[in-house]
Amino acid sequence: MIGEIRVVLQRDPAARNGLEVFFTCPGVHAIFWYRIAHRLHTWHLKLLARVISQLARFFTGIEIHPGAVIGKGFFIDHGMGVVIGETCEIGDDCSVFQGVTLGGTGKDHGKRHPTLGDGVMVGAGAMVLGPIRLGNHVKVGAGSVVLKEVPDGCTVVGNPGRVVRCYGRTATPDVDLEHGKMPDPILAEDAALRAAIQDLEKRLHRLEQRQNEAAGKD
């Protein structure tokens, strides 16, 4: 648990000291109980593992299936409503916010849930569904629904999720939690549509002027 507390102190500006994190951070509690449940799951004590995970869900509002595989440095901010499915695989130094679902589509068998590379950030309320892979250092905007694979270093937003920025990098020195400052493709399309309408209005105005001039000559 010491490692999880250290991660919270590094990434959460509201965390003032380790004692406060220990007693008040549900993400830390959920990960602590997940580690125990996951160990029991690997020992084929699956019923006991599920009981522990359900108790952790009751007390934290965070549901992590004990069969999921989660790397070190995992950070859950706020946490209420987070769901992580059984066959989900999460790399090192990943961050998720409240309301995130790493789940299945209901159509797959065997490997049903996503795989996240290292340094992935999933914004509040986002859903990543199906046996897809998000590459290293991918960012998922708040409220997005991701159903397709995302390459390393890319930012995906919207419903359905679309890649709007991609740096192609596989490593980054810092953990960026600015999930509220991502590009908005709807606003971009709206601006493009407005520009196109203004251009059409100008053309129509010029055409009307020419018609009026031609009618005056007649």
Explained architecture:
- This protein is an alpha/beta fold.
- It has 2 domains: 2-182, 3 Solenoid (UDP N-Acetylglucosamine Acyltransferase, domain 1); 184-218.
- Helix content is 38%, strand content 17%.
- It contains 5 helices and 15 strands.
- It has helices at 2-11, 18-24, 26-42, 46-60, 185-217; strands spanning 63-64, 69-70, 75-76, 83-84, 89-90, 95-96, 101-103, 115-116, 121-122, 127-129, 133-134, 139-140, 145-146, 154-157, 162-166.
- It has a 6-stranded mixed sheet with strand order 3-6-9-12-14-15. It has a 5-stranded parallel sheet with strand order 1-4-7-10-13. The protein has a 4-stranded parallel sheet with strand order 2-5-8-11, with no helix packed on it.
- A hairpin with a 4-residue loop joins strand 14 (154-157) and strand 15 (162-166).
- Helix 3 (26-42) runs antiparallel to helix 4.
- The longest helix has 33 residues, at 185-217.
Number of helices: 5
Please name the CATH architecture of the largest domain. 3 Solenoid
Got a strand count?
A: 15
Strand order of the largest sheet: 3-6-9-12-14-15
Strand-and-helix sequence, N→C?
A: HHHHEEEEEEEEEEEEEEEH
Instruction: Characterize the overall form.
Output: elongated
Q: Label the structural class.
A: alpha/beta
User: How many domain regions?
Assistant: 2
Quick check: average pLDDT?
87
**Radius of gyration of CA atoms, rounded to a whole number:** 23 Å
Q: Give the helix level as a range of percent.
A: 25-40%
Distance between the termini: 89 Å
Largest sheet, if any? 6 strands, mixed
Task: Estimate what percentage of residues fall within beta strands.
Answer: 15-25%
- Quaternary status: single chain
CATH topology of the largest domain: UDP N-Acetylglucosamine Acyltransferase, domain 1
Query: What's the CATH class label of the largest domain?
Result: Mainly Beta
